[in-house]
Fold these 2 entries.
Entry 1:
Amino acid sequence: MHQGQIQMSVHDFARRVDYATALGLVLAHARQTPQPVTRVPLTQATGRVAAHAVQATSARPPADISALDGYAFAHADMLAQGSLPVDGRTVAGDRPAALAAGHARAILTGARIPAGADCVMAVERMTLGAGDQVAPATALAQAGANIRYRGEEFGAGDVLVRAGQMLDWRHVALLASQGMRDVAVARRPRVCVLSNGAELAADAPGACADSNTPMLAAMLGSAGARVRTCSVASDDVAMQAAHLRAACTGTDVVVTTGGISVGGTDHMLDILLAMGARIVFRGVSIRPGKPFTMLEHDGRAVFCLPGNPGAAAICALAFVQPYLRVLTGAPADMAQVSATADFSADAPPDTTGFIPVSMRRGPQGWHFVRVPTAGASDIIAFSRADALLAASAENPVRAGQVAWAIPLHAPSALA
Ligand SMILES: Nc1nc2c(c(=O)[nH]1)N[C@H]1C(S)=C(S)[C@@H](COP(=O)(O)OP(=O)(O)OC[C@H]3O[C@@H](n4cnc5c(N)ncnc54)[C@H](O)[C@@H]3O)O[C@H]1N2
Ligand code: MOO
């Protein structure tokens, strides 16, 4: 279909944009479409993005406290008298009475320092003698020793979590230390992944298993999206249109794979245009992934990824993931990794080539090593690689020089 001259001007890739332009358009759209805010319990906050900055409501420690189990006393008294009688015991959670003049106080770790004391020594460094007198068994500690001072970690009003911070156990600990039980976060983007093509039917003569739907659900789900999927094992326009309309219902983002090139069964663009969608860009000068097309439908982003699984993965990593991050208020490129390239690569003019690389630790640090790939349909290259390097005429990869890459997995999975 659409073999005519006029039709081709909409459908072909003559007006494709370059990588930087496409990414800029993707991120600009995300910035003008912020996610609503919701509150989640701290136990469910990992992987969510803080909607606002959170400030400390109280200092930490909230008072001067003992770092040890031992005895608290006035340094000058111990220096003058050599030993001091013990006037009692203070434990964590107490509000201790002031130290009786010329006395020591038994004190436990985390307990408040009684007024009048300015030094703590560990119990194993002191001897307790007749008449409940304590004396240093070793050299007397310095004044101020073994006291954790009020606010030495942070003060009331200090920023504990920045807006846009991806939360994990570190922030959970900080917020819990303030008595907080929940936190305001951006709602998880609701994504529908829709694959299409008659070859996806199990009984098709040349059946092809749908790997794109599970792949993208896994990738975008681990990037924080709430993903639902739909596999349309047909090239029928009416059926695909019905599923695309359903995909748009109740979602923030729609991701399609397949049916976006210029073949006779590539219907995604026509269906979306008929639904009133607007083209943001049609095609990108990247390899693989050239047919990647972005539309906007009723305010939501619709990303049409090529059906070739390797190309679909690259477009999702390079564009959809940053989109989802920015949508939730997180920085777009928080996940880039750098290392020294151990190979050189140029890209054809006006094209950005994506190169899978593995990361190897050498005596001088980490290196990017090229992973062979069969191209746009290749998915095994990704499981042999750790990151994805972008090479262009302006930014060629040069052996011995530092390069930046999009990681394919969490750093803990590095061999
Ligand atoms: N005349 C031109 N033809 C093509 C061009 C071009 O510029 N001019 N671009 C080529 C490029 S580059 C790509 S990439 C493909 C993209 O085509 P589509 O996005 O329309 O994808 P399909 O044709 O539907 O499928 C391509 C390929 O991928 C397999 N596939 C599809 N869906 C899935 C899935 N869910 N899971 C696994 N594999 C899937 C499908 O069987 C095909 O082998 O267009 C070129 N053509
Ligand atoms: O750009 Mo296609 O995605 O190379 O096969």
Entry 2:
Amino acid sequence: MAKSAQKETPLQQQYNQIKQKYPGALLLFRVGDFYETFGEDAIKAAGILGIVLTKRANGSASNQELAGFPHHSLETYLPKLVRAGQRVAICDQLEDPKTTKTIVKRGVTELVTPGVATNDNILQQKRNNYLASIYFEKNSAGVAFLDISTGEFITAQGNLEYVDKLLQSFAPSEVIYPKGKKQDFKDTFGDRFYTFTLDDWPYSGDYAYETLLKHFGVQSLKGFGIERLNLGIVAAGVALHYLNETEHRNLQHISAISRIEEARYLWMDRFSIRNLELIGSHNENAVTLADVLDNTCTPMGARLLRRWIVMPLKELKPIKDRLDVVEHLLTDVDLREEFQQCIRQIGDLERLISKIALQKANPREVCQLRKALIAIESIKKICSDTDNAPLKAIGEQLNPCTTICEKIGLELNSEPPVLVAKGGVMAEGINEELDRLRKIAFGGKGYLLEIQKREAELTGIPSLKVSFNNVFGYYLEVTHAHRDKVPTEWIRKQTLVNAERYITPELKEYEEQILGAEEKIFALETTLYNELLYTLSEYIKPIQLNAQLIARLDVLLNFATVSEKNYYVKPNVNDSRVIDIKGGRHPVIEKNLPPGEAYITNDVFLDSDSQQIIIITGPNMAGKSALLRQTGLIVLMAQMGCFVPAKEASIGLVDKIFTRVGASDNLTSGESTFMVEMNETASILNNISDRSLILLDEIGRGTSTYDGISIAWAIAEYLHSHPSAQAKTLFATHYHELNELSNTFPRIKNYNVTVKEVGQQIIFLRKLVPGGSEHSFGIHVAKLAGMPQKVLARANDILKRLEAERTGGEHIKESMKKVQKQAMQLQMFSIDDPILVKIRDTLNNLDVNTLTPVEAMMKLDEIQRMIKG
Ligand SMILES: Nc1ncnc2c1ncn2[C@@H]1O[C@H](COP(=O)(O)OP(=O)(O)OP(=O)(O)O)[C@@H](O)[C@H]1O
């Protein structure tokens, strides 16, 4: 604030001390009923929130910018600041100003950052809000994901590529890492995240280990199965350290930490997660697989669905279990409806119980907890009545926590207000003192009427009235007509046009009793409510387990619902090495076709013996990419336990999916498209396994035709000849030359996506049929895109010549040279602009050998004048 320490007021001193403790954070400083910001913070806040920026004319601080808002608007303004990328420190008054004669004690009660937020307005219901903590060495890294709003805490470690892929899957809102690793971080993970760096010292194995032991109150981390994840432990320990730094202390709901077991999940590199548009896309408006598959009843279900989408399974038994439950729920419509009706009552139990731990749950939310527990009791019963083993198992684990459910019902009013401080929260009959005080405070109406009646009779003023106002409390009102009947001991307080108002010692005494009682009621209700919250917080673990089970049930029900709605079928997931899809569809494109257009289904067969690699050629826009992606998506959906968009599908377990589909968006990181493509492809080739599914779309198109064909050829050959891994591959390409591969390599087969030529037009049939295709119809697509007629005609001409010469055995390069030569001639002689024709004729008629320099200059002048007109 002020520059000179001597001139600082005590308030300014306090502000400066607190501000210094939270560098980089925007400080909201509570002064009375307002949150104020000063200086740079005020300029930022005014810009982001659109609030008025003023200057304080106050001694040395006269140049201090100031912007503030009423404290009750915090809920509205805080999310705006955080979404704008600010770290916001909320500094509150820590004591009642009435109880202190000196400056009020103040302190930061919470530092809200994009990754550490509990405010409903900042969080997105259907998405987790993860903080990711990363600790990395040269080739490996540990990572921890922590969502303070749900209590989830997960860790993993592996090579940098694995951690990068996890970052893509979990899409954290904030990533923290050591200050000393800024450049390394950027080189490895790019700049696609909101990041914050911490001092290097907390990144020590011992400190992190101790932090975790202390938090969980355990002797070792063995019980969590993370004991050996040295790097993961450091990352996780620092995540907790960061919560402490940001003033988050009530963290009982972070009750366990688990490890991501890499071996359980199908591997997808981060390009695949992005390219297949599973949960997000580079295009913000694109519809993702998550959008199409989400019909969940609770936010917890929606969040778990997203997790299942990016982490499909690769073990047969759990996949089959999920599919069987989905089938059961799909066929038994009544059961599904019964379940869904109950689940809809539950709401976001996971975040609700976190709020109880954080002591931020309001009375309405506690009421909602009771509703949820009642619904859980019904769900438990429905589960136990079914004959489906996995559903029965869910039912057995559900715990309706009847004791606390009853306690809430007994102690809380059935429709309490949101704020505890306003009273009316706790029920009658649970505390004698509360009942007594309430009688005094609210049973007063009768008492006042009694006074009114008695005094009216005593004074003989029939129109006497007892009323209340904020200025002098309870009073008696007498019309002027009866003024002379007023007893002398009444004290006159106010004269109105036609009446006078008086107070009496009796009324004053009564008033004091009432006001005192009200204050006591509010205080007592707050204590009782906090006691209730405290009891509830002892049930965090069973309620969290309930939330997980309900989320699971919700996703399985959701799979049944969307499968029915979208005509998906149960896939036969098995141990074979065959992928056999009949009548497959793309789950997202089929939902977004123009009205009247139907999705054309296709069959895809891949195995390790006869048809390992399919080269797919076909015109632009034919549907090659769609086919590649739909095959990947069908496999993914099957392995997440969902039915699939096909007529029939037999899926031999896939352990890794790699894709190189479409353009990349890494351009911002300074790499060329081709470099990115080669990076991605190299990573595929170095990681393939026998059960991998590889989807390659137009590999090599980013370089010259020769390079492109050669690279694509070599990749196909490598995949075919790999000694230990016959990875199944779909290879879409415009290079018809690649069709030659099938002559030499028995497991490479040619297919093409068909079109029909009708005169000058082509019709996209979108059917995949055996055999290569001859041309790409790229020029036709250019025409569809509205390219000028002249360019199209010229392109057609060049194409015809190239094709004719190629079939004549001529080299492309030679053909190209000829084409180029022709192009020069065409440019010179097919011009039809009269001025250019004139210039051409003038130049043609010149004899350069006999031209003197002066004549040359005169000719140039003549030409120039022709141009100028
Ligand atoms: N089987 C299908 N049924 C109906 N429409 C389809 C089908 N396949 C693709 N489409 C539509 O055609 C459009 C183009 O498909 P896609 O991008 O797969 O073509 P492509 O052959 O990969 O083209 P290019 O070679 O130019 O990349 C899609 O966006 C989709 O709208």
